[in-house]
Amino acid sequence: MRENKFLSIYDELVNQIQSGRMKPNTKLPSENELVEQYHTSRETIRKALNLLSQNGYIQKVKGKGSFVLDVSRYDFPVSGLVSFKEIAQKMGRPWKTIVNKLEEIQPDEYLQKQLHISSKDTVWKVIRSREMEHERIILDKDFFIKKVVPNLTTEICEGSIYEYLEHEAGLKISFAKKEITVDEPTEEDYCYLDLKDYKHVVVVKNYVYLEDMSLFQYTESRHRLDKFRFVDFARRGN
Question: What digits encode the pLDDT tens for the residues 11-54?
């Protein structure tokens, strides 16, 4: 028996899950059934199942067996501060950013409050649809204080604004405060997202700070409800 047979079993089961031949919430065959099906040892099957569990394909339920998880959703890190481009490239799926608006505006009272600025300040307003596998599933509404970010172009916004700010503008982005809510879609959401029949969107508000603790960006990132799992890692303190 090849030592890495559990990897070939893992790959075959992953293919069945990703292709939809194994539907979400369905129960996998028992360990005994898999042993007979693949003509291998129980240890090899357990290694394959453990790897499936670790990588988010199945959930083991004590006394009941293993169940297929919904892998049509994209993992969105709650605690991380990453760009859409970085997430999309990590997933290895076809993606595209559509710049719907790029303009300089004078902030209304709401933006003045969010960015801690006055009506005399100028703000970049950037509205972008994020397309994944040919569906517009995120609407990002970004607002940058212009005195901190003096220059933005459509080309920059189609790629990664963070990549430009860090590598070309020399800004040191440090941390963000986040708020997550579930809201009813707005007219903008219906215009710039492929919402289908979904009646709610998950909204992640980001207040982004530089290394010197200065707030320079406020973002509303509006996600189609069915496409994301918001994930985090938490450790209980002693």
Answer: 999 888 878 888 888 899 999 999 999 999 999 999 999 888 87
Rounded CA gap, 176 and 46, in Å?
Answer: 40
Tokens 């982004």 belong to: 208
Cα-Cα-Cα-Cα torsion 168, 174, 179, 180, nearest 10 degrees, comes to 60
Domains of the chain: 5-68 (1.10.10.10), 74-231 (3.40.1410.10)
> In this predicted structure, what is the pLDDT of residue 18?
78
Backbone angles phi and psi of 47, in degrees to 5: -60, -45
Q: Do residues 171 and 194 lie in contact, with contact meaning Cβ atoms separated by under 8 Å? A: no
The answer to whether the pTM exceeds 0.70 is: no
